[in-house]
Automatic annotation (TrEMBL):
Keywords: Methylation, Ribonucleoprotein, Ribosomal protein, RNA-binding, rRNA-binding. PROSITE patterns: RIBOSOMAL_L11. Pfam families: Ribosomal_L11, Ribosomal_L11_N. Residues 1-53 form the Large ribosomal subunit protein uL11 N-terminal domain. This is Large ribosomal subunit protein uL11m. It comes from the Eukaryota. The keyword Ribosomal protein applies. Belongs to the universal ribosomal protein uL11 family.
């Protein structure tokens, strides 16, 4: 991910007294070698009264990974009624391994538990989980 000074970032950081330029520089330095530029990142920011701050960069949400694996821009309009796409359970397993590695909240969870969570997320998005490899090409999700 890349953070650029913008009104959206300014509106989020300004009331907290956080210097937007300094935050963007630190964020970009921390994520430059780990994630691609267009990868959406989650950030947990703690701002202190003396205008100092610390932040933790978290990987993209599970829904982003699932949409990438299913090659769809969004999930089904009516989950449970309309199928917005399909994703292989093998792909979800690979996503689970990536999430376990890069998400500090999931490091203590086993891959099977993360896989079950991803299957539930896919179902709630209207993405069907299939057992065969769909599509037949290898999954490449660069984060």
């Amino acid at each position: 991910g890349v953070a650029r000074p913008s009104p959206k970032i300014g509106q989020a950081l300004g009331p907290l007294g956080v210097n937007m330029m300094q935050f963007c520089q630190e964020f970009n330095a921390r994520t430059a070698d780990k994630f691609k530029e267009d990868t959406p990142m989650r950030v947990l920011l703690t701002a202190y009264a003396d205008r100092s701050y610390k932040f933790v960069v978290k990987p993209p949400p599970s829904s982003w990974f699932i949409k990438k694996a299913a090659s769809v821009p969004k999930g089904g309009g009516e989950p449970g009624h309309t199928i917005g796409g399909r994703v292989s359970i093998k792909y979800l397993y690979e996503i689970a391994k990536v999430k376990q590695e890069v998400d500090p909240d999931l490091r203590s969870h086993d891959v099977e538990g993360i896989l079950r969570m991803l299957m539930g997320t896919a179902k709630s998005m209207g993405i069907e989980v299939v057992e065969d490899t769909f599509p037949p090409t290898p999954l490449k999700i660069d984060v």
